[in-house]
Amino acid sequence: MTARPSPPTAWLSAATVVAAVATAGSLWFGLGLGLTPCDLCWYQRILMYPLVAVLGVATVERRPAVWRTALPLVGLGLPLAAYHSYLQATVAQCTVGGPCATVQWQSPLVGLTIPNLSLVAFGLLAVALVGLRKHA
To answer: What is the pTM assigned to this prediction?
Structure first.
C-alpha cells in the first residue's frame, strides 16, 4: 500500500505540474508551431516561467511557505491573462507589439485560445497556492 502525500506536498506537486505544463505549452506554441508571442504573451511568460523553478525546488524541499513567493507572480499573471482573453475576444488587435488576436489558435480538445489557456493555468495556480497557504 502506498502512502498518500500530505496536503502541502500534494498542493506543491499540483502547482509545479501546472506551471511546468504551461511553460512547456508556451514553448511549443513559439518553437513548435512558430507562433510569435505578442507583448501580453511575453509578460505572462515572464510571470509563469520562474514558477517552474520556484515551485519545483519548494516541492523537492517540501517548503509550503513558498506560497509567499509564488502568489505575487500568480496575482499579477491572473488579471493579465484575463485582460488578454478579454481583448482577444473583443478587439482585432490586443497590443501594439503584435496581433495575437488574429492568430485565434484554439485547442482541439477544449476549444480554448492561447490567452484562455494562460488564464486557466494562472487560475489553477491561484487555487493551489491558496490551498497551500491554508495547510502551511
So the answer is: 0.83
State residue 89's pLDDT score: 78
Instruction: For residue 19, list its beta bridge partners.
Output: none
Gap between the Cα atoms of 120 and 128, Å rounded: 12
Burial 110-134 (b: 16+ CB within 10 A, else e): eeebbbbbbbbbbbbbbebbebbee
Angle of helix 67-90 relative to helix 114-135, nearest 10 degrees, comes to 150
Cα distance between residue 84 and residue 16, in whole Å? 23
Burial class (CB in 10 A: 0-12, 13-18, 19+), 88: buried
CA–CA gap between residue 48 and residue 77 (Å, rounded): 8
Tens of pLDDT, residue by residue over 50-89, are 999 999 999 998 888 888 899 999 999 999 999 888 888 7
User: Which grid coordinates are listed for 45?
Assistant: 511568460
